[in-house]
Amino acid sequence: xxxxxxxxxxxxxxxxxxxxxxxxxxxxxxxxxxxxxxxxxxxxxxxxxxxxxxxxxxxxxxxxxxxxxxxxxxxxxxxxxxxxxxxxxxxxxxxxxxxxxxxxxxxxxxxxxxxxxxxxxxxxxxxxxxxxxxxxxxxxxxxxxxxxxxxxxxxxxxxxxxxxxxxxxxxxxxxxxxxxxxxxxxxxxxxxxxxxxxxxxxxxxxxxxxxxxxxxxxxxxxxxxxxxxxxxxxxxxxxxxxxxxxxxxxxxxxxxxxxxxxxxxxxxxxxxxxxxxxxxxxxxxxxxxxxxxxxxxxxxxxxxxxxxxxxxxxxxxxxxxxxxxxxxxxxxxxxxxxxxxxxxxxxxxxxxxxxxxxxxxxxxxxxxxxxxxxxxxxxxxxxxxxxxxxxxxxxxxxxxxxxxxxxxxxxxxxxxxxxxxxxxxxxxxxxxxxxxxxxxxxxxxxxxxxxxxxxxxxxxx
Length: 461
Prior knowledge:
The chain is mainly alpha-helical and about 450 residues long. Helix content is about 45%, strand content about 5%. It has 15 helices and six strands. It is globular and about 70 Å long.
């Protein structure tokens, strides 16, 4: 199904738009009646036929084909809420230490500076993208159950999409996340949920996905990784290890991009328009994503021929080469991530083979990483240093995939680190100190939700 159609499919999920379409048709009928009084004798005249291509009649989706169109639309939304837009995946990397702002927009600078206003328009858009994905996955689930109940793996795919959105919300936003359900009329408004409650929802969605997917389905492995990720976020390390144990190293599920149907916005914001810069040792605590010269990431310093400075023109430009073109895919779940989850579970269990798991990845990196073999790691000997090493490996293997902010928050929440030893601190590049935000805020637009009465603690991991 063409990407342009996916966009159209998702528009009809708003009941107000469907109501508007109906009202327009009633008005048209009234006009036709008046015309008949004044002598228009051919009611089927082509000039009087009306169809707004921007509005999809709800009747159009009450078929197996319509239900499947909703499913495809949900995948289109998933692409946008990950690497197809300026999403929580990308903004989370800006709040963390993967990117620094090279821009003049205050919304990006305040995110990088860890002092985000709840009216930040980029946050509003990113939150909307995430919730639209969640809503459309539910909408598609309802339609598939009613109009295309078999094969059941299609429903499993939608449980995966829904769960992925839930987990990303828990990793990215402050505690008190509402999930309203606009897949039915009237809208069911959501109450504020704690981070733990949202992670439980993500885990349950992953379980439902697994239950509806056959053993051979690629999305079954994706759902298993999602479940392991949610359990890891909950600090249930051994359960996370069990959840991903059967995932093969070769597994990968990626968001895909085309030059006409939605480009990779990590490439777009960094390599193309230079609004984002790959960060290096940002704010004392940031990792050396540039100076380490690690082949898992690969970067390039700007030269005169392609502009040596960022968009703002204040500092040097650093391009990422992990996503070198606008169509570069972004891995969302993988066998690599499964092995990293296993390594962390082994470390927390006091099992010395945790480092063997990491070294096996370095010796034979999966093809989708485009990484050569790396030298073996040596056990640093103390538990804090081992945790540092594990999280550094996660950061370099999964740079630019939406994991880093959640990992930094886990270092505080699960490993007892102080935020000023994890997040960037000191003087911001444009002057003034870094703030204390460790999450993305629930934006002011959520105040339109009558059930949302929580307050967002932006300093809580």
